[in-house]
Structure formats: C-alpha cells, structure tokens
Design a protein that fits this description.
two-stranded antiparallel ribbon, Multidrug efflux transporter AcrB transmembrane fold, Multidrug efflux transporter AcrB TolC docking domain, DN and DC subdomains, about 60% helix, 6 strands, 12 helices, mainly alpha, about 350 residues
Length: about 350
C-alpha cells in the first residue's frame, strides 16, 4: 500500500531553490497514469522479486468518502462556510433561517449557525443584557436610598423605555445596524435619562412640602426645570455629535454609539416633560386613595373609648397654695400699702 500511495499521491524528495525561493520536489506518476481505474490497475506492484499488475492481486472500486470526520458533542458534524460581503451578519442569518424553515432537514439532523465573529457577537450580546439588568437594579437601589421610598423610583425609571424609542428610531433613520457598540450606547442611556426625572421630581417634592397641591407642583416644576433639563441634554447631544458624524480614526466603529445616545436623549428629554409628570400624578392619586383607606381601617381597628372617661382629656390644674399670691386686686393693694418690715426706718 505504501508503494501505491507514493505512485498516486507522490513523495516529497527535496526542494529546488532559485533566486531566494524554495520549491518542493514531489515525485509521482503522470496524471494520465493515475486518474483512471485502468491506469491504476495496470500499475506494477512489487510481489517478491517480480512486479505484478495491481488487478491481479486486488479489485478496484470507486467510492466516495470524507477526507476527515469532524465531531461536535459526540456527533458527526459537517461545516458549510461562506463569506459575508456588505451585509449585516444578523440579516444573513435571518435569511438563512427562513430558508431552513421552508425546507426542514431530515429527522436527526440539526442546523446550527457558528463562526468566530458570530460566536463573539452572541457572547457580547449576552454579556450586555446581563450588564443592562445589573445597571437597572443598581439605579433602582440608588434611587431608593436617595428618595427613601420603594415606589417613587419606579416613577423615575419610566424615562428608561422612552430613551429606547428614540434610539431605535435614530438607528433606523441612519440605516444603522444595532451591533455590540450600539448596545453599549443603550447601556449608557439608562443612567443619562434618569437624571432628567430626578431633576423634575426632586423640585416637585420640594413644592409639595411647601404646601402646594400635586397638580400645581407638577406644573410649576415643569416650568422651572425645563431649562436645566434642556441645557444638560443639549450638552450631551452636542458632545456626541462628532462621534455620530463619523469624524476621526476608527469613527465608523463608534458611530453607532453616538447615534444611539443622541436619539435616546432627544426622545427622553421631550417625553420626560409629559410622561413622567403624568405618571407621578397617577401615582400620587393612588397613594392618596390607598393611604386614606389604610387610615380609615386603622381607625376602625382601634378599641372604643369609655364615654365616662374621655380620652386625651387634659388633667385639671391644681390650685395655687402659695400665700404670697392673692386672688383679688384689693388684697394686692393692701399688700402694696403695708410697710415693708425689712425696710430700714429713718
């Protein structure tokens, strides 16, 4: 078999060097002698001291087999590869999945997408989703500590979904694919958009403590806090404008980050002035309703008081027994006319 393998596949016997380049020297039969079954059957194989044709000691058949067997998770694997040109990888995978759904594979065969870039992208998405969940939890904890309430931070965090509206809309307008870098921008938006709600509701609570009604406090807070909210949001938007325009080296990779932040800040800034006050007004009405009901229930649960001894009745004042004081103005006058015993006589 080694002789037949050398005659058909060849054997590297050395190198030929010329002008600094090395070329391998491979010795094997001519192509016309090794590409047909008849040519291979006529090859002389050493058999003792003589050479005998191959068809005299063996039978040749044409069969197809794999050069190597790939396995994954103890299962045979066949890899089909291709190159992606000027298209988003997620769109390519989506189109391929539609074709597979229309033409399902036989039973026992499973189709799975892979590749170095695709696997890294999926791992990046998974890590970002975990980071977003952790960021939301940490923001909630900070707001609970700051406002000393477990329910008010939920009203403040209403601005988070509002930022996603602008981020997705801006990405669609700019024909931007949401990649890992754009998802990092979404993570940054979670912390940026909440500060508008904090500025608005913090001033609202100060007005409520001053005795103003909820509706008037919200209207006044929107009028007073609109300018600071617009100024801080404009600073963030113009700060990310060079990144969104793709200026500088490697800007194409960071472009999605700037577009997502700008779109999210625009939508959250505008909608925060309408949605957050409305949500807080609804929240305040619910709290006042359930709070008053809880107070009434607490009153009904109290034991009835004794009518003979009314509760919270102030104790009677003790009469003043001091002899130096008098109850009538005549006594005071008599004391004033009486000579002082301790006064020295002239």
């Amino acid at each position: 078999m080694s002789t037949l393998r050398i005659l058909v596949s060849g054997l590297d016997v050395g190198e030929y060097r010329e002008n600094g380049s090395a070329y391998p020297i491979n010795v094997r039969l001519r192509s016309e002698d090794r590409q047909t079954i008849a040519g291979i059957n006529s090859l002389g194989i050493p058999f003792g001291p003589d050479l005998v044709p191959l068809d005299s000691i063996a039978r040749s058949e044409v069969e197809y087999s794999q050069k190597s067997v790939l396995r994954s998770d103890r299962l045979n694997e066949i890899i089909l590869g291709g190159n992606n040109v000027n298209r988003n990888l997620n769109y390519v995978v989506s189109d391929m999945q539609k074709i597979i759904d229309q033409n399902p594979p036989p039973e026992g065969i499973r189709v799975q997408f892979g590749g170095s870039f695709y696997n890294q992208q999926q791992q990046g998405y998974g890590s970002l989703f975990v980071a977003i969940v952790i960021a939301i939890v940490l923001i909630y904890i900070v707001l609970v500590v700051a406002f000393r309430s477990f329910s008010e931070p939920i009203v403040l965090m209403v601005a988070m979904p509002l930022s996603l509206v602008g981020a997705v809309f801006a990405a669609r307008i700019m024909q931007l694919d949401l990649n890992v870098v754009a998802m990092v921008g979404v993570l940054m938006l979670l912390g940026l958009v909440v500060k508008n709600s904090i500025m608005l509701l913090e001033y609202t609570k100060r007005l409520l403590e001053a005795g103003m009604s909820t509706h008037d406090a919200l209207v006044r807070a929107c009028l007073v806090r609109t300018r600071p909210i617009m100024m801080t949001s404009a600073a963030i938007i113009f700060g990310n404008l060079p990144t969104a325009l793709g200026l500088g080296a490697g800007a194409e990779l960071r472009r999605g980050l700037g577009i997502v932040i700008i779109g999210g800040m625009i939508s959250s800034t505008i909608l925060t002035l309408f949605i957050v006050p409305t949500t807080y007004s609804f929240y305040a009405s619910l709290m006042s309703r359930f709070g008053s009901k809880h107070t009434d229930d607490a009153k009904h649960d109290e034991p009835p008081s004794d009518p003979a001894a009314p509760a919270n009745e102030p104790a009677p004042l003790e009469p003043d027994t001091d002899d130096s004081h008098s109850d009538s103005p005549n006594d005071d006058q008599e004391q004033a006319d009486a000579p002082d015993e301790h006064q020295p006589k002239a």
